[in-house]
Amino acid sequence: MTKDPLSHAMRSVPRYTSYPTAPHFHDGVTAATYAGWLDGVSPDETLSLYLHVPYCRELCHYCGCHTKATRQEAPLKAYSATLGQEIGLVGEHLKHSGPVRHIHWGGGTPSLLPLQGLIELAGLLRVHFNLARDLEHAIELDPRLVGAELAETLALIGVNRASLGVQDFDLGVQKAIGRVQPYETVRQASEFLRQAGVTRLNFDLMYGLPGQTSATILDTIEKTLSLAPGRIALFGYAHVPWMRKHQRLIDESALPSAAERLELADLARAELTRAGYVAVGLDHFARPDDSMAIALADGSLKRNFQGYTTDQGDQLIGLGVSSIGRLSSGYVQNQPDVGNWRRSVEAGRLPVAKGLALSTDDRLRARIIEELMTSYACDLKPLCTSHGLSTGHLADALATLKGLAADGLVRVEIGANDNARIEVTEAGRPFVRLAAAAFDAYLPGSKARHSAAV
Questions:
Q1: What single string gives the DSSP state of each residue in 256-304?
Q2: What proportions of the chain, in percent to the nearest 5, are helix, strand and coil?
Q3: By CB neighbour count within 10 A (0-12 exposed, 13-18 middle, 19+ buried), where does 183 fall?
Q4: Cα 260 to the chain's mean position, in Å?
Q5: Confidence (pLDDT) at 20
Q6: Quick count: other Cβ atoms within 10 Å of Cβ 226?
Q7: Exposed/middle/buried for 449, CB within 10 Å: 0-12, 13-18, 19+?
Q8: Considering the chain, what is the average pLDDT of its residues?
Q9: DSSP symbol at 129
Q10: Is the predicted pLDDT of residue 2 greater than 50, yes or no?
Q11: How confident is the model at residue 245 (pLDDT cuts 50, 70, 90)?
Q12: Three-state SS for 20?
């Protein structure tokens, strides 16, 4: 254990689902910039597609996603139609790209789109892109809205993995976060999906929620295990009311203290690994035969805007409001509001709001951060050499790591001939984001606010 784990746990750092992180994107990346990047994608480069649907039936108090509540069908139908137009617009630039290896529908609640709309959008993806035979096709779902017809429709369009937002099974916690969904609701949703043939299930859980205790989180883990998902994500609740105003509905006095939050995370991790799940990175767990556990073992695990992933696509294409894509040349983010996004698409323009062109330094640091976040270790010399730089280029990061090393969170081995190796210790793994932050050249001067490290 570190000398002072609580002080480290409460430090504010990014989640590093990208580097550089989104607060550093700027409007210097335009629709014309993005068009050039898309046109430059070659036939031997594979693709991943992310489709964002920014609607839910109601907003849960804890939610940090880019979404809004609606109970009307008209905006959903209109959104589906515009999303179809954007698919065609982007597809025109990618006629000669390689196959799509991964599709992910996120939100919001993407299954709110009309069932016919989902079918038509999936058809457009097949028209405009070459979908690989071994494609992973995933969707995020609200268990309260999963019925037999939806499950059958998802199987029909090729969805083969579904993530269910569970968070916590305790009724008191559910009331505190504005999301009441009994165990039976989640069990029934899982059954509908499995009966339809969507058998690869992920459950999303959270710790650090208001009213959570050791007893409630252990009960949630027990109930989760009874439903046997292939993967479990265990996210720390990020209380950022300055970014998500609806989080002000949460009673801050009911949030676990720093010490309690750390205890909840440790308890949940221990129970999941005791049950035979493999710990994958900072916050994921997978059955040993799941593709994510296999990717961890063979070194192919990746991290992107969906978190830890087996996605091996060379280029990630974002579709829909606020979605972010990552191409070899840089990041690009769509317009964050439906009106401007729709007007751009209907005018035949890629709906770009901002982005960031990657420098050599960005690419090097991004690779190091991803290796630390996925493998807990990194040999600096080969990575620096592959980017035409020396290990001395990272002297700032190595100096920052000294403090973490002194507290037993990392080991830094610096040898002759420019060799240097960073390894996150067993005690330091819950704090891996701090090790990643040492390589973040943008963080020291950033005014962006982030969530706690654990």
A1: PPHHHHHHHHHHHHHHHHHTTPEEETTTEEE-TTSHHHHHHHHT--EEE
A2: 45, 20, 35
A3: middle
A4: 25
A5: 96
A6: 9
A7: exposed
A8: 93
A9: S
A10: no
A11: confident
A12: coil
